[in-house]
Amino acid sequence: MKTQHIFVALFFLLAGPLFAQVKFEAKVSKEKLGVNERLRVDFEMNQDGDNFQPPSFNGFRVVAGPNQSVSNMWINGKRTYSKTYSYFLSPTAKGTFTIGQASIEIDDEIYKTIPIDVEVVTAVDTPKDGDNKDIASQGDIHLVAEISKTNPYLNEGITVVYKLYVSPETSVSGWREIDRPKYADFWSQNIDNDQLQVHEGTYQGKPYRYAILRSTVLYPQKSGKLEIEPLALDVQVEVRTNRRDIFGRPFMTRVNRTLTSSTRTIDVKPLPLEGQPANFSGAVGKFDLDIKTNKTKLDASESLELVVQVKGNGNLKLFNPPKITLPNTFEVYEPEYKENVNTTLSGMRGSISESYTVIPQFQGNYSIDPFSFSYFDLETNSYKTLTTEGFEIEVEGGSVAGTPSNSSSSPKRQPVVLNSEQFKYIKLKPNLVEEKQPHFFKSPLFWSLITGPMLMIPIFIFVGLKRKEIENDVAGQRLRKANRLAKKYLSEAKKNRGDQKLFYESLERALHNYLKAKLTIETSDFSKERIEGILLDKGVKQDSASEFIDILKSCEYARYTPTTEGAIQMDYEKSVDVISSIDKQI
């Protein structure tokens, strides 16, 4: 009996390694991280292998690795082996990315890991580097968002200035934007920096150098607490190492740092309801009102031009000049809107105007009543009303209103005198010749009808083969169908490419109509973030959804900012491509 127990124990002891299962798996430090954080990826195996092949790490940049570690322990007579390849990755953009399959060769067999999806979201306030102390660069560098005012009124302009602070021991060789703020619930315009200049300053009480990377003017469009998203940068930093040359000078090395500004919250105050004029249209700032006319004395049916102008400093692009009321005996054409607005760090400054073409129909003296314009004055935190002076227009040389014009007397009827030469061109005795009808048999038409179908047979065969080839080309059919659909929806925008305002209105309407037709929902009532979420839920790729939202934003920006014909053509072609891409994916 004891012999049998010994035999069984020896059998399992010797056969144990034969039944040992090979494990090769991938592990990540987190499956959701901010764009300013780093990800650790470990490829771990329980047996030694050769020819390790890592994945391509699309959507990430390798900042350290591969670091190899081996663990080989005996515990109570049992061997435990582990070998790990570790990588430290930095995201290059927001979105969902897949850590692909790695492979290893163990005992002449190829083993592969299971892919892992990792979601990269907006930058976090306290980033973590995946527990890798070796990749932290030396020296101090900070990205700061400075806001001119954190408690503005609705439609009051504020500025956000992004500054990069660098300590004297550190130098920056380059930078690139990873994540750009979207400025939801704000009207925004970037102020271009003509030249990057370095200034001397302090940060947290210490001397630093800083450069202004980006400046943006914001006008809040709703009250309450609004968040300004962080800006994320990939910065190339030159830092000192612990090694020195023969002269004692430290060696420098280049590392990449992901920097983000903190999320800032703006508490927007609503405009007071007390004392708000009935004709208030949302103007906030400091303005002047003026009305101009090129003449006050003219003849009936002669045109004159009336210009209503608002000028000053404030949200000029976010409201329209007041409408003028004219006598109903004047023919008034649709006014022409013009704007001459310059946006700086102090906000919008300039003028907007509407030019009316007016044609009086009757003579007389007409009084143009005064009209008013109201705005909220930020200096006094109160409403101000501007009123123009009335004036008269004198019309001469026409009929008086209400009096019918005199009709001219009818001429006397004259007898019609017939001339014998009037109908001489009519031939009364034509010389008609009978024309013989040609025989159909063996005529050219006869032979063409006989041989024509036989000659068409090769053409029919060729067309049939070509049609079959097109039908088998499924991808090509989808592409052609998607392109036809895109051009169908964008046909109106294409017709209006000569008019910037009409083009972008038609383009935005076409994009919403496309989604309405494809998704059977009213996307015009949704926010851009909601539209992007719906597209992603329908299986649209992140790049296509983001490009669709960018075009919608371009439509909004182009209403208030001038653009070129080349930019209009580029936006049209981009819209055709993105609709085609989304249609194929849905």
Automatic annotation (TrEMBL):
Signal peptide per UniProt: 1-20
InterPro entries linked to this entry: BatD
UniProt keyword list: Membrane, Signal, Transmembrane, Transmembrane helix
The keyword Nucleotidyltransferase appears for this protein: no
Entry superkingdom: Bacteria
Chain ranges passing through the membrane: 445-465
One Pfam family in the UniProt entry: BatD
Protein name in the entry: Protein BatD
Organism the protein comes from: Planktosalinus lacus
Phylogenetic lineage: Bacteria, Pseudomonadati, Bacteroidota, Flavobacteriia, Flavobacteriales
